[in-house]
């Protein structure tokens, strides 16, 4: 009889210990969850994607990036700036439009992001730059990681920067119609604004760390240099920026692909002053 009671008591004791243990685990998990969600509330990323005509790339990009950023607990909003006019492509002006039309008041940092580049390495993350070495700007695709561009000063592809840093830089020059060089000029703006620039460290996968969707047979680059274009685009432009940009948004809609978080699309008609840049149309 005595033995049986003892047995029951130790059984109860064991049950209580197990319950306490489970309670501890639950409490710890909830603290961790709360910490994680606090991190998520602290910073929100705005991804600006300059765009035209490449729906096959966009339809791969949106679901891929949504998963990539959700896996890393990075709350984000994507704005696709679609150049709907018939001028030559103007990546810098489209990035300026993305900043001005972002529609994400709690986004405190931005990724200027090519639509044809997908990060594909487990250690690549898109942190708030000041949290990563105290930088204002973080180049995610430096020349030793970008699949295609390897010159020392290269700063295109994917660039993270705080909203303040972009504002301080004055934005991109609007004079670059056609392919290339606007990112080199933007780098000079960042440096002259005294912003600190960091780069992602090299990875063992090197230039295979990103998937380059670009298919030059389908989307030929517009590398023509016409009229006074060389003169205006091979030097620092001190006349134009996001404050002097003229454009019209002709349509806005949201685009959800494959269950990914919907992106905002703005269809934009840029203004070209043919007196200054006659090469905006060829
Ligand atoms: C990313 O890399 C892995 C191999 O490391 C590969 O299997 C996968 O297809 C790549 N993703 C894309 C989108 O190409
Ligand atoms: C980066 O790492 C890859 C792989 O280890 C290597 O092949 C490449 O030379 C490195 N690049 C630089 C700039 O260190």
TrEMBL record:
Residues 1-26 form the signal peptide. InterPro entries: Galactosyl_T, Galactosyl_T_C, Galactosyl_T_N, Nucleotide-diphossugar_trans. One of its GO terms (cellular component) is membrane. Residues 42-122 form the Galactosyltransferase N-terminal domain. It is found in: Membrane. This is Beta-1,4-galactosyltransferase 7. It comes from the Eukaryota. GO terms for biological process: carbohydrate metabolic process; proteoglycan biosynthetic process. Belongs to the glycosyltransferase 7 family. Pathway: Protein modification; protein glycosylation. Pfam families: Glyco_transf_7C, Glyco_transf_7N. GO terms for molecular function: xylosylprotein 4-beta-galactosyltransferase activity. The lineage of its organism: Eukaryota, Metazoa, Spiralia, Lophotrochozoa, Platyhelminthes. Its main location: membrane. Keywords: Glycoprotein, Glycosyltransferase, Membrane, Signal, Signal-anchor, Transferase, Transmembrane, Transmembrane helix. Residues 139-206 form the Galactosyltransferase C-terminal domain. It is a single-pass type II membrane protein. Gene3D superfamilies: Spore Coat Polysaccharide Biosynthesis Protein SpsA, Chain A. SUPFAM superfamilies: Nucleotide-diphospho-sugar transferases.
């Amino acid at each position: 009889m005595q033995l049986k009671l003892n047995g029951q008591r130790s059984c109860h004791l064991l049950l209580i210990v197990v319950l306490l243990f489970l309670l501890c685990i639950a409490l710890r998990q909830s603290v961790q969850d709360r910490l994680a969600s606090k991190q998520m509330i602290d910073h929100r990323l705005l991804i600006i994607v300059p765009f035209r005509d490449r729906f096959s790339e966009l339809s791969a990009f949106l679901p891929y990036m949504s998963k990539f950023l959700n896996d890393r607990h990075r709350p984000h909003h994507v704005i696709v700036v679609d150049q709907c006019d018939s001028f030559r492509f103007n990546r810098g002006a489209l990035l300026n439009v993305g900043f001005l039309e972002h529609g994400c008041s709690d986004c405190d940092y931005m990724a200027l992001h090519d639509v044809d580049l997908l990060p594909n390495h487990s250690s690549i993350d898109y942190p708030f730059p000041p949290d990563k070495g105290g930088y204002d700007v973080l180049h995610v695709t430096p020349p030793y990681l970008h699949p295609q561009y390897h010159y020392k000063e290269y700063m295109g592809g994917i660039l993270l920067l705080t909203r303040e840093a972009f504002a301080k830089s004055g934005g991109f020059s609007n004079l670059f119609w056609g392919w290339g060089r606007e990112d080199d000029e933007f780098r000079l703006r960042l440096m002259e604004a005294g912003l600190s620039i960091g780069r992602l460290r090299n990875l063992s996968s090197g230039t295979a760390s990103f998937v380059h969707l670009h298919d030059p047979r389908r989307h030929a680059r517009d590398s023509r240099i016409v009229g006074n274009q060389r003169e205006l685009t091979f030097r620092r432009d001190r006349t134009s920026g996001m404050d002097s940009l003229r454009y019209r948004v002709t349509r806005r809609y949201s685009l959800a692909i494959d269950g990914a978080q919907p992106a905002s699309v703005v269809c934009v008609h840029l203004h070209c002053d043919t007196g200054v840049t006659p090469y905006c149309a060829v």
